[in-house]
Amino acid sequence: MSHEPQNLIERLFSLMEARDLDGILALFSDDAVIYDPHYPVPTMTGSAAIQKGLTWGLATLAKPGFTVRQVWLDDSGGVVEVDTHHVLSNGMRINFEQVFVFEVENDRIRRLRSFTPNPPPGIGTWISKATGLWWKLRS
Hints:
Elements: H1 5-18, H2 21-26, E1 28-35, E2 43-45, H3 47-60, E3 61-63, E4 66-74, E5 77-88, E6 93-105, E7 108-115, H4 123-138
Parallel strand pairs: 1-7
Antiparallel strand pairs: 1-2, 3-5, 4-5, 5-6, 6-7
């Protein structure tokens, strides 16, 4: 199977939307690493961990959805900005922006990392919220 990085990432989103776990797993190398903060164990290393994580992820989604906004590529991978629009298994719709950084090796995805526009964890969240409130009160 020969894929360029863009073909691989487009295929990944298509297979996610089709909920095709076997097809998704076939795109990853045996020692691939996925990091996604939405999963119970955000760092999934190797086929077994990735299968376990994606099985859980697909079980929580009635209808996965991704609209690619922008793609930046080179020969070994790239960055994809997407509008994510999922329907959860309980019927709730969620929409958020997401960026994926990915690396390709030997025509398979070797690394995939998700970035979401969430606020910083811990005290960083409280500092930014307090500052935002202060700015609103002063304007």
